[in-house]
Amino acid sequence: MARGRDSKYHPRVFIVLSKVLDLLVAPLTWALLLLAAALAFRRSARLASSLVGAAAAVLLAFSAEPVAAGLMRHVEASATRTFRDGVTYDAVIVLGGMTEPSAARTVELNAAADRIVRGFELLRSGRARSVLLSAGALHPAPDEPTEAEQLMAKLEEWGIGADRIATETRSRNTRENAVESARIVRERGWRTLLLVTSAAHMERALGSFRAVGILPDTLPVDFRGAVHEPSWLPRAAALEKSTDALRELLGRAVYRWARYSR
User: Which among 219, 221, 175 has a CA at the least distance from the CA of 198?
Assistant: First the structure.
């Protein structure tokens, strides 16, 4: 298994730092910092006005669908599809990040649900013998099922036998998805593997698996770079899309620096 700078940095510290960086890379954070600076320099009317204008420009730009879609297309452009039509895979590895908290204790899927849907289709069609659901919890609670366990229940509800489903419940980020999945892959002796995750996430995910010695084929899903509303009017959904794209770009840079990705 490849060793990187993880021998020097505690995983928990890495996770905390990554969440701080996630916050700092968000355009909304930039706008708030600019407004805070405007308040701090309110005695200088010209400077304060310039800072307020910059905050408004940031929000307007990154809330526009053409900008958001352009950023997402840039991020998704590196997603490679090496899925082989003539292969029955030993296992399809489906990465988490597609469920939302639910007060009703039911599985609530979010926009990344294409991941589990595609995994199900591969199992149902016989293109994959097994599935590995890699999805733990950032703050695990002893009385709450992990995302992987929730997704397993969903697949069983859809008719997939429990003997075809493996779960990995320890991972808290993409690096740990790869590390923990590699352990299970080797224990089970799986050879032909297919990695399924969102297109924007695929480059970092594949690089993380390569870094731990696992070389799967890839099937990116959940493409979000299409322009649905070619309007420059601000939209909250567009701001979220821009933020997701910027966070992924930062994540790739951090993973390369830490040698978590190849």
Answer: 221
CATH label of the domain that carries residue 168: 3.40.50.620
Is the pLDDT confidence value at 108 over 90? no
User: Residue 55 is part of which domain span?
Assistant: 9-77+233-257
Q: Do 113 and 68 share a structural domain?
A: no
| Listed range (43-47, 86-90, 101-105, 197-201) with the worst mean pLDDT | 101-105
| HEC profile of 99-137 | EECCCCCCCEECHHHHHHHHHHHHHHCCCEEEEEEECCC
- In the predicted structure, residue 16 carries a pLDDT above the cut 80: no
Quick one: residue 160, left, alpha or beta (phi over 0 = left, psi -120 to 50 = alpha)?
beta
User: How many CB atoms are located within 10 Å of the residue 2 CB?
Assistant: 11
Domain count, the chain: 2
With tokens 């960086």, the residue in question is: 21
Question: Minimum mean pLDDT among 50-59, 105-114, 216-225: which range?
Answer: 105-114
Mean predicted lDDT score pLDDT of the chain = 91
Alpha helices in the chain (DSSP H): 11-24, 27-40, 45-62, 65-76, 114-124, 147-157, 174-188, 199-211, 236-257
Q: Does residue 177 share a domain with residue 55?
A: no
